[in-house]
Specification:
Oligomer: single chain
Distance between the termini: 50 Å
Structural class: mainly beta
Length: 245
């Protein structure tokens, strides 16, 4: 099978990440009505203000802003992640919230949206030791897609999507994470794909049957940071917004 040169794949990814069409009023903006309804931007479209590398006071230089999206520059690898990249988290913590954002993954790419992260590097080396994750993945190319509960939109390693609504690599996907008093809903491209309840006995049993079974802090915190994962692959995000409920 013919394969495109790496430089061509990267070029195609960035052309795709650079949108030709904008949402009404432009990306990374809120209307007056949205502001009145409590929505706040977590990404201003111009800077990485409001974010930092997990366990650090600053953000790594590999996380960059181009035009109106936030992306991970994968030019220099460092083990399985990116040199001066790493998982990034919001400066603020959130309890009951509704999160919306758009993501786009490169060919064969992997990333994730993590929430309720308890940031204590002395106790937890990684955000996913405490925070559940909505999977971001190229289902048609990344090997994780062959594993049940590891596909795009899944509550990673815990619950599979009720329906697969993910778009192919190189296209924008709208992800939504809503949690109110433990009632969790994940939506992808307008369809509710996961519904569950956090912190009850059924949740604890589900975690005990997952890869997180030996992580005592996983899925236990009721307030925490929102995180975007560096899994060593090109990924970009835009229109990251949240409202407290």
């Amino acid at each position: 099978m013919y394969r495109l040169p790496v430089i061509s794949v990267i070029l195609i990814f960035f052309i795709a990440c650079n949108p030709s069409k904008h949402t009404a009023g432009g990306n990374n903006r809120l209307t007056r009505e949205e502001k009145n309804n409590g929505w706040e931007l977590l990404f201003d479209g111009k800077t990485t203000r409001g974010w930092h590398k997990y366990g650090s006071n600053t953000i790594g230089s590999a996380w960059k802003v181009k035009d109106d999206f936030l992306y991970l520059d994968t030019t220099e690898k460092e083990n399985w992640q990116i040199k001066d990249g790493g998982d990034i988290v919001t400066d603020e913590e959130f309890e009951n919230f509704e999160l919306q954002l758009e993501w786009k993954i490169a060919k064969d790419g992997n990333s994730g949206i993590i929430f309720y992260i308890h940031e204590d590097k002395a106790k937890y080396n990684w955000p996913w030791e405490t925070g559940p994750e909505m999977q971001v993945l190229d289902n048609n190319g990344h090997p994780d897609a062959k594993i049940i509960k590891h596909r795009a939109g899944d509550l990673y390693d815990l619950i599979s999507c009720s329906a697969e609504t993910v778009k192919p690599y190189g296209e924008w996907n709208l992800a939504e994470v809503k949690c109110v008093n433990g009632k969790l809903d994940l939506s992808l491209n307008g369809a509710n794909v996961v519904s569950t309840t956090l912190w009850d006995d059924d949740w604890k049993k589900m975690v005990a049957g997952s890869k997180f079974r030996n992580m005592p802090g996983f899925g236990t915190y009721r307030k925490g940071h929102i995180g975007l994962q560096d899994h060593g692959n090109e990924v970009c995000f835009r229109n990251i917004r949240i409202r407290r409920l």
